[in-house]
Specification:
The structure is a single chain. By secondary structure, the protein is of the alpha+beta class. The protein has one domain: Jelly Rolls, CATH 2.60.120.620. 14% of the residues lie in helices and 31% in strands. It has 2 helices and 10 strands; from the N terminus they run βαββαβββββββ. The strands form 2 sheets. A 7-stranded antiparallel sheet has the order 1-8-5-10-4-3-2, covered by helices on one side. A hairpin with an 8-residue loop joins β6 and β7. The longest helix is centred in the middle third of the chain and has 15 residues. The radius of gyration is 16 Å and the shape is globular. It starts with a strand and ends with a strand.
């Protein structure tokens, strides 16, 4: 599996500004009863891990930044800047940006990772940027879409402000709610 993790690619002032934007009381978040699926997912995805006791589901908040029906969507400029700096530093040249989404999880008393998923059922790259220091690891599994049987944990990435991880988006992955911090905020990018 190709995976790039970088903890120090952003200048501190940029990381601070991104955190200010997405943790502002003025930033508009949308409630999701299930953090993985805001609408019915593609056939087969929600139930495949349904009886796997390692995982659970919970509510959360999200904001679709791109593509957005709203011109100049709030958060687009700082989110774009993070992506551009990371891609430039690592020499990655995407052909098309598919989506940028911000996710906010609140403190939860159960540290069980959420149900594994893929962001899109097609070949793509996924990048996660950790907006703030928190707990609530991201878990990457060894299986790729559509295969999922007998999956096992491949890697855990702990949230750390300024950290980003890039991986093959066909790998099942999931987040975990924080248990010690009030919120865990990430920017989730998908591109080809």
């Amino acid at each position: 599996m190709t995976l790039i993790q970088d903890d120090d690619f952003l200048p501190a002032d940029v990381a601070d500004e991104v955190e200010r934007v997405f943790l502002s009381t003025k930033y508009a978040w949308n409630y999701y009863a299930n953090v993985n699926y805001s609408s019915p997912p593609p056939d087969g995805l929600p139930g495949i891990f349904q009886n796997d006791g390692r995982f659970g589901d919970s509510f959360g908040f999200a904001s679709l930044i791109f593509p957005s029906p709203q011109p100049n969507a709030p958060g687009f400029d700082p989110a774009r800047r993070v992506l551009e700096i990371f891609l430039s530093r690592h020499g990655v040249m995407p052909q098309q940006l598919l989506r940028i989404k911000a996710n906010l999880l609140t403190r939860h008393d159960q540290p069980k990772p959420f149900t594994p998923h893929v962001d899109m059922p097609r070949k793509h790259w996924a990048m996660i940027y950790y907006v703030n220091d928190s707990d609530g690891d991201t878990v990457l599994l060894d299986k790729t879409y559509p295969e999922w049987a007998n999956s096992s944990e491949l890697k855990r990435i702990a949230p750390k402000k300024g950290r980003a991880v890039l991986f093959d988006g066909s790998h099942y992955h999931c987040g975990t709610a924080p248990t010690f911090h009030d919120v865990r905020v990430v920017l989730n990018y998908n591109f080809v």
